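[Meeting: bench + compute handoff]

Bench side (C.D.) handed over the final construct sequence. Compute side (W.E.) agreed to return the predicted structure before the next meeting so the bench team could plan truncations. Sequence as handed over:
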Amino acid sequence: MGIADVNFVKGFIRMANDGWEQGWHERNGGNLSYRIKEEEVSEVKQFFHENDNWMDIGTEVPDLANEYFLVTGSGKYFRNVIIDPADSICIIKVDDTGTKYCILWGLENGGRPTSELPSHLMNHEVKKKVSDGRYRVIYHAHTTNIIALTFVLPLDEKIFTRELWEMATECPVVFPSGVGIVPWMVPGGRDIAIETSKIMEQYDVAVWAHHGLFAAGEDFDLTFGLAHTIEKSAEILVKVLSMTPNKLQTIQPDEFRRLAVDFGVTLPERFLYKK
C-alpha cells in the first residue's frame, strides 16, 4: 500500500480534485491543509525521510508544536494533485517552538508548502483551541461568485451574512454563525494571517475581499460542503441581482427564528435585520 492509499490522504486528494472541478483553482490558485491525527501519523511514518532542514514558518504557532500537517505546495496546481500527489502536496512537521517546519514527505521535484502557510497554521491554532481539537481542515478557494459579490456588496459581515442566508433555506443551518469579512490585503504574509485568525475565533468562514473564501471544518466533507454551500448561495445572489436590485419577497426574521428552532441552531439576532 502506498501513501496515496491511506484514508486521510485519499480524502485530501479527493477534496483538492473536487475544488478543481468546481473551477475554483485556476492555475496554482488556492490551498488546502489538514492537521493529521496522531494515529494517522503512525500510518504514514514509514514513508517519511529524515530531514534536518528546518525553515521559518513566518509566524509563531506554539500550540501546534510537534504537530504534522498535509499541505498543498506553493506554485502547484490543484488539477495535478490527483495525478501526481507526491509532486503536488507534502507532509510537514512543526518544530517544538512552533516557529519552524520541515518537509517529511512529498514535493518530490522540489518546492515549498503553500505561500499561505502562515495563514493556515495560525488559523489551525485558533480553530484547534476554540473547537477543543475537533477542527482539522483549512481550505482557501477562489470561489467565483463570492469574489464577484465583494465588488458590489458592502464589506460588512452583517450584510454579507444576511444576503447569503436569504438565498437558500439550508444556508442558516449550514453556517449559523455567519461569515466574517477580511478587506483586501496582500496574501501570503503574517498580516492577513492575523486578521483572518481574529475572524476564525467566531466564524468558520472568512470572505477575503476580491480573493475568495477561507474556510475551516472538522473534516474534508464538512469543510468542502461549507464552501460549496456558500458559493452556491453567492451564485444565486449574483443571478438575483442581475435580474433586479429589489427582491419582491424573501425570508423574514421570524421565519429565520422558526427555522432555527426546528433545526436546533442558534442564529445571531444581529444578522436577522439589514439595518
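W.E. noted at the follow-up: The mean pLDDT is 95. C.D. will use this when planning the next construct.
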